[in-house]
Fold these 2 entries.
Entry 1:
Amino acid sequence: MNHLPALLDWVEARLGLQMTASNQENVWFAVQTLAKQAHLSPDDYMQQLMYNQCDQEPFIHRVTVHESYFLRSRAQMEYVVKQLIPGFLQRRPGETVRILSIACAQGEEPYSLAMLCKDAGWSASQVEIHGIDLSAECIELARTGCFTRHAVRGVEESFLRRHFIADSSGRFTIQASVRDFVRFEAMHFPRESLSRLLPGYPVIFCQNLLFYLTKPELLRALEELRRLLYPEGWLYLDGASSAFPKTGFCHVHKENVHAFRLAATLPVPVAKPVKAARKWGQEVDQTVGKKSGDQLLHMAWQKFRLKQFPQSDHLFEQVLHEYPALQAKALLGKARIQADEGQQMQAMELAEKALAHQDGQYAALTRMEAAEACAIIALTLHGKGLLPAARSWFALLKQFNPQHPANKLFQESS
Ligand SMILES: C[S@@+](CC[C@H](N)C(=O)[O-])C[C@H]1O[C@@H](n2cnc3c(N)ncnc32)[C@H](O)[C@@H]1O
């Protein structure tokens, strides 16, 4: 009996993770690997897993994406450290600013925040950073505070020297004084956080998680974010997640940084985040909207061609936040950046999201752009050796653009 369909349902129900084509492949890959390690057939392994007769943690770790790196959302973090923390401490002297980093992976995000806090002169008694992640394996790694060169890519040498101890094997270990700011816990957000976390966080980072969730789980997560956020707090989401309807939050854009704050009234219109935010007057940077979405996209692709990926990514993010009708195009741009940076799984996820907009309410991608998204997915699956899945994406790619260069690889490999 093939238990895979039941397992996919189980993953959605148990973890709240949406089963897209790419993570279905991940699930199957994890099953094959772990069944082999346990000397079981894939079916027997799946059955044991679903009936809780084996350790579920290795499976959970394998079916989630843990890509992160230091100073990933530097502009947002610097805004928090230089603008929000001083304001909070001035209003509430003697209190500690609690920052929550949800889906913190191996700790790159909370440690980055801690390093910036340290550089700004804050102490661990003034700022406490709490990192949580579903994967207990990630949390264990986070606690070791030991990272590869890949995790600190793009970070300037002086910053590395201040906050890490580099060893001869190329590993970077966090300085003890940085660790003092941070504590980690493995937990499912939002299911376990509900009973384990107290509300009142003035700052919450929830980046690159929401778009993995099923619709009901997303609604639960938003409710939980509303519960956890301090009434005047700031929530930071990644661009792709910012596009979701978020009843009860309003979008603010200040000093080139996007954030969400609890709205006093419900609901906040979603399709026009800039207009919605304008109702909140002084929070909105009045320069928003000066450039059209098409202009921003054009600039983003120019930066991409010059290989200025952070600048290009920033512009695509801006489009995601401010121009809902252009979200699919911005997601495709972000996918291309990830693909060029060697982050194939992230690229595939974003390409899938860009294509998902095809059936939505907006004129999403042109045929050429849809072909590009299919090529990213097909090439990733092909690279992972998942040939039957790759084949169906190559077929779709050919329908959109028979001249796309990736078709050649398909013909050669079949
Ligand atoms: C792509 S990483 C994001 C890392 C970091 N926030 C960033 O943006 O760089 C996604 C993380 O979400 C975690 N995750 C997935 N589902 C989760 C859940 N329901 N609760 C908490 N963490 C979850 C995964 O284990 C993974 O480490």
Entry 2:
Amino acid sequence: MKKLRTYYMHLRHPPNMERRWIFPLAIGSMVSLFLLFLSMVASPGGTPLFPFYKSVAVSSSFFVESKLHPVPISSLPPPPRFAYLISGSVGEGNMLKRTLEALYHPINRYVLHLDLESPPAERLDLQKYVQNHPIFKKFGNVKVITKANLVTYRGPTMVANTLHAAAILLREGGDWDWFINLSASDYPLVTQDDLLHTFSYLPRDLNFIDHTSNIGWKESQRAKPVIIDPGLYMSKKADVFWITQRRSVPTAFKLFTGSAWMALSRPFIDYCIWGWENLPRIVLMYYANFISSPEGYFHTVVCNAQQFQNTTVNSDLHFISWDNPPKQHPHHLNVNDMQRMVDSNAPFARKFVGEDPVLDEIDKQLLHKRPNMVVAGGWCIGSHENGTDPCSIAGSTNVLKPGPGAKRLETLINSLLSEEKFRPRQCK
Ligand SMILES: *[C@@H]1O[C@H](CO)[C@@H](O)[C@H](O)[C@H]1NC(C)=O
Ligand SMILES: *[C@@H]1O[C@H](CO)[C@@H](O)[C@H](O)[C@H]1NC(C)=O
Ligand SMILES: *[C@@H]1O[C@H](CO)[C@@H](O)[C@H](O)[C@H]1NC(C)=O
């Protein structure tokens, strides 16, 4: 056991690296994640996800001592890559920059979108910032959408915008594992090193999507009304409107609903964008007249596609605080929410407005982010002295330095993948 640990630490944290804020994972859960990975690579049929429970359960007694030690270094999981969409609207350019800096890692990909409501000057400013940023320039992994979309709040144009970004990310090479849709008012609670490290132990086909088929009041208020989004055909922004006729609940597929925030796997995004089966296209057309389609489109597709049903993890990976009773928008987070955010173990939180001081606290306590700099990860090998950015000198981008955030995230993931929560909550 001890050997595994040293060995593991050795891989992730070369001895010449600073280890000040490295917190080794609890060994028990580390082994479980490791076994999960092993069962994945060891599964014969090439369908990594399905057998992993069984394998973890039956093999833990003999695998640990006899099989783990001889595994050669090269078979440890390489870090995954995330593809982020970060969207904003008028006046959110600066928030968007800050969120990007907090989420930045050279092995990820980023698409930024300031919708058509923001003035061209704001988009131009964002574009210049990305173009002139020495780190983004060096790695070339941040892209600003120049032909901005008109996005109507609660309308299908929001889903169109998300699909547009996913298509750009596929076209840019598609060398990523998860697509994560965020807005300028989201912010991470863990570093990318934490996230990449923890996700490197997960099957790459998992889809993190909060969902339920228990649509309740939404049946009469969302599924039956028919809306039109003028954003689809007008050049100026106007709110969605309702037509008087109502429609019945679909019988060709089952409706699911949930959070508009998700982390979707590369295979599932391929399925939605390429549309070699008709389901994603039909459901998209159906949702064109559905109020709040971002809270239903992907949920309905993933749960009605047999090959993806078993890949869902019922979580949006977010800390979101609703007022009681819930209002249209979530409660705006402030410093009083800090402890609850940390205790949630969630990697992301929303909603933050303006430059609320709680963001400074998150930067200081959780991300170690300095103003106007990206979060320093294991790839940053420059000096901290005299206010220089340690990331101005880049080392190997595969070196991760997970901190306490990885520990929190691991707790969350272990719980989401536990026997009581994982299978029983899929597409129910
Ligand atoms: C994607 O992100 C935006 C934030 O700009 C959000 O409003 C939208 O509902 C999200 N979800 C989907 C499925 O498009
Ligand atoms: C999904 O899981 C269920 C229950 O575990 C199983 O019966 C079904 O065959 C699985 N579906 C696929 C496509 O593997
Ligand atoms: C920081 O500043 C001091 C004093 O000006 C200088 O001696 C030192 O070399 C600087 N360090 C770096 C890394 O630039």
